[in-house]
Amino acid sequence: MKKHPRHRRVSPLGRVASGKSVSATRWAVRAVGFCCFFVFAALLDSAPEELSKPPELTRAARPWEFLCSVGQRAAIFGNESGNIEAWVYPLKLFRDFALTFHTEDRAWNADALVRSVIARPESTTLVYVGDTFRVDETFFVPVEEPGAVIKIQVDTEKPLEIEASFRRDFQLQWPAALGATYASWDEPLHAFTFGEELKKYAGVIGSPSGILSAEEFETNYAHSTVNSLRLGTTARGKDTKLIVVAGSLNGAAEARSTYQKLSAHLGDLERASAEYYANYLRRTVQLELPDRDLERAYDWSRISMLQGLVANPYLGKGLVAGYRTSGASQRPGFAWFFGRDALWTSFALNSTGDFSTARDALRFLIQFQRDDGKIPHEIAQTASLVDWFKNYPYGFASADATPLFIIASQDYVRASGDAAFARENWNSLWKAYQFLRSTYDESGLPRNLGVGHGWVEGGPLLPVRSELYQSGLGAEALEALAELAKVADRNEEAKALAAEFEKQKPKLEAAFWSPEHKLYAFALDTNGKRVDEPSVLATVPMWFGLLDLSRSKTMIEQLAARDHATDWGLRIISDHSPLYSAGGYHFGSVWPLFGGWASVGEYRYHQAHPGLQALRANALLALDGSPGHVTEVLSGSYYQGLSTSSPHQIWSAAMVVSPILRGLLGLETDGLSRTITLGPTLPADWSSFAAHGLRAGDVTVEAAFHRTSDEMAFQIKRSGGGECFLVLQPALSLRAEVSSVELNGRPLPFHLEKNETDQHLQMRFAVYGGTSTLRIRLHNDFGVAYTATRPLLGQRSEGLRVLSETWSDARDRLTLEVQGTPGAPYSFAYFRGEELAGVEGAALSRFDRGSGVFTITMPPDPSAESVRGKITLQFERK
């Protein structure tokens, strides 16, 4: 399939219509880091086993923070106090599980002694410490088993006995329900067993060393809902105890069998699960980045996305939206299947090369597509046990899932090269298009009103006729389906769809650009008039390169300002808007989803500073909060998750991966044409990076990059048969001049494509077996870097925002527009600045090799939360 020029991330001219201070020592070290060329070779030759060492996060425990361990068939949800609940999908077994430590004639509630948490892909461990003992409690859910194990490792000086208590909550996930249920102690099994009158659903929780301690009861005079068992006394030294959980939808015998399997083969199952995640990291795109936090967040986010894959025994395998405790209810966060969540996640999966999970997600939605072509929005895990699509309003509540399905299908087919998918599912794709066309209003834009919500589901931003978000997806779906039609050998449909796209695209500018306010409107109201509320949702059509270049730059500058952008992400609307509320789910809060949209769109439109700030804000969330996970939504005014947020949200993790691969590195893979594109727009303080496992058909490519003041070099290594092409499009400053480009010592043709902010050096060549080296000799390249830091919990936003970067026509002057806290100092590093003559608006400190730091102190203004400033860097004339 021939790629439309608009899909080239770093070439929008062919696609579109027209905290705080950092120590000088640290910047100096970064400036000379990675300068030895042997590091370059080491990056390329790194063994996959070294790159995919299991990630692990350890920090002090936060008793309120979400804790989980999940597999495809079961899950444990809770918090870092040790209070948890257990699920075997779609069945909830119990809640309020907790430990009590009995020692020296005292009983210690575990939540008073929790000290640290250790997160691994396959398990989570809480560490409890008393005066004379330490207990490590590891929550482990195997990938494919309908159960879980809680492993308790004891190290004690005094006799210690552990008691585990819980409340039975034996029910199906919302909205289905069981009738009368019961529990009893099974002495030979050393376990509590759960059941119901039809004897179909069953559960077990117990321990090989378990002794009954208390059993729930209800009489005329008293009652208790607590069950507990003791695990036997450890006299002294080290010991290991197990608590095993199992469930079944096929009766008690199967639940008992699973219980015994988990008890007898725990070690094998732990090793298998750890290897499952290690293999996943090896077989998807691996990165080596100078920014260690970014690299760790990328690895954890790959794992987090995969953990959204659920194998429901009634519905099949698909992606759920996220996880949170259900408490006394039967709704665990968003642990049921969502259309648009899965589709936005699939873009990240395709970029990493995880085509099988992306394909599973698409196929899952196809099986529930409505007869008129509409794609489902929500499918509860018990949808087959109730009349879900008839009696509940959620099944097809959204309008955006349908165009997203077409776009995501095209993205999958192009990236994977799976042309058969387009042919086999053409009828489903065509039906989705027919539904989309049926929603057009009199102006030819797809409606939300009367059809289904776009991104906004409720609140004061509604009602509207059509969001820019929805209209942008509708336009992109036309081009995506045109490409799919070519793959499916439907040339007439392809021509017609391409022509329809060319007519539809200009309508976005005509309908949504506000010349009075110099912004893209959030939506059209019910009368078809613009709602001139600036919103981050405008970056969605930018993701796909649909909007005008110059206007988008103006819009991005507004979104980069502190009334939209916080230290932890972007608000949906400005906090200056009369509609804003910090806790407004759809009218003020910060979603990592927004930051991902913005970052990809900003990189695509050459706005690297806000693109990197949005990316790092998302990435740092993966290393905070619930360890390794990115939360669903945060307060718009304070750094903390909303009280109703799902702390392990799948599309939030995807919005760490997509901005890194599609934005920062400009990665596109085309399995149909066997072409890999890399268009890195690197931070100025990066001298190297490496990407392993880039795939084009059955060809795999490794790429390592190294940069000095006068040279860039890519080392490429390929394996696998067949033809393969590589397109390299690295970003340079507008001041840079290229002297030569050589591939394996021979001149290689190149082209420079310039825009208002930077320029991209473009090269295309065939990649053959073995290792190839591409060298770019250049001079006068220049870059500045500002690295934001994560705020403290509960803190207001105080970091610097880089609003714009402007070069003079003679390329001898660079102006940065910034915004920060009144009176606060902020430091930038600069690199390759041998010809830097001076700086206005900031204090300059020079280092060796053309590097240094300049620090701006924002103007004092006691009455303002933020102020703007300007920094001008003057260069010697060429």
Mind summarizing the main beta sheet?
A: 9 strands, antiparallel
Compute the CA-based radius of gyration: 28 Å
SSE-based structural type: alpha+beta
- Which residue ranges are poorly predicted, with pLDDT under 50 across at least 5 consecutive positions? 1-38
Count of discrete alpha- or pi-helical segments spanning 4 or more residues: 19
Summarize model confidence as the mean pLDDT: 93
User: What overall form do the CA principal axes indicate?
Assistant: globular
Q: Strands of the largest sheet, in order across it?
A: 1-7-8-9-10-19-14-13-12
Helicity level, as a percent range? Answer: 25-40%
Q: Strand fraction band?
A: 25-35%
Distance between the termini: 44 Å
- Count the beta strands: 53
* Oligomeric form: single chain
Explain what you see:
The chain is an alpha+beta fold and 878 residues long. 27% of the residues lie in helices and 32% in strands.
Descriptive labels:
eight-stranded antiparallel sheet; alpha+beta; single chain; disordered N terminus; 19 helices; 878 residues; globular
Write a compact overview of the structure shown.
The chain has 19 helices and 53 strands. With 878 residues, the protein is of the alpha+beta class.
Give the helix/strand layout.
Blueprint: H1 24-32, H2 37-45, H3 48-51, E1 57-60, E2 66-70, E3 74-79, E4 84-88, E5 91-103, E6 106-109, E7 114-120, E8 123-129, E9 133-140, E10 147-156, E11 160-172, E12 181-186, E13 191-196, E14 202-206, E15 211-214, E16 217-218, E17 223-224, E18 226-234, E19 237-248, H4 252-264, H5 266-283, E20 286-288, H6 292-306, E21 309-312, E22 316-319, E23 322-323, E24 337-338, H7 339-352, H8 355-366, E25 378-379, H9 388-391, H10 401-416, H11 419-424, H12 426-438, E26 466-467, H13 468-487, H14 491-512, E27 513-514, E28 519-520, E29 523-524, E30 530-531, H15 539-543, H16 549-559, E31 565-566, E32 569-570, H17 592-604, H18 608-621, E33 648-649, H19 650-664, E34 668-670, E35 675-678, E36 688-696, E37 699-707, E38 711-719, E39 725-728, E40 731-733, E41 737-743, E42 746-747, E43 751-754, E44 758-766, E45 770-779, E46 783-785, E47 801-807, E48 813-820, E49 825-831, E50 836-840, E51 843-846, E52 852-857, E53 867-875
Helix pairs in contact: 6-18, 6-19, 7-8, 7-10, 7-19, 8-10, 10-12, 10-13, 12-13, 13-14, 17-18, 17-19, 18-19
